[in-house]
Fold:
Amino acid sequence: MAKILKKIWIFPILFILVTGWYFSNSDWLYTKWDSRCVFCDESVIGSQTIYRGEKASILATHKPVVKGHLLVIPNRHVETFDGLTTEELIEMSALVKKAHFGKEYVLLQKNGILAGQSVPHVHFHLLPREKEMGLFGFTLRILYGKFLKALSKEEMKEYVNELSAMLEGSGHPRYEIGSHEEGLKERAL
Ligand SMILES: [Zn+2]
Structure:
């Protein structure tokens, strides 16, 4: 039995390598850009915003790869990094510096469909690293993040409150969702 097992161990490894190679080269892995931008959608901004500054915002993502997974975006609709103004870059950088909860973290930013960008609105992913999740599992979750389960409305509300409190604890001003909704109405007038 042991002899047979020794001989067949190669097949699951080959299967993983071949399917991994196939899927990572398949067109369906690349998200086609929608004409509708979710980061300009008021219901998304209203429910996922943690902090909104003059030119940039911090959002909770609807498919967190790890707990504390945040997005930093410009308020203006800009598709890729090279379209940002210096003022937007300065404010986004300041938010990235403040929004990492003082832990070790990965900063991820993609430009274009081939690069794996799914939403056509510049966004930095801030991904805190925890010792509990190995680097292999963490990388796999980033690669296949689009297949993760999206948070429900209720879960998102809790997640936004939790992250807001965490940011507040790290010296970042808390952004009240209610006041943000009021802010949106004010801007619409
Ligand atoms: Zn947009």
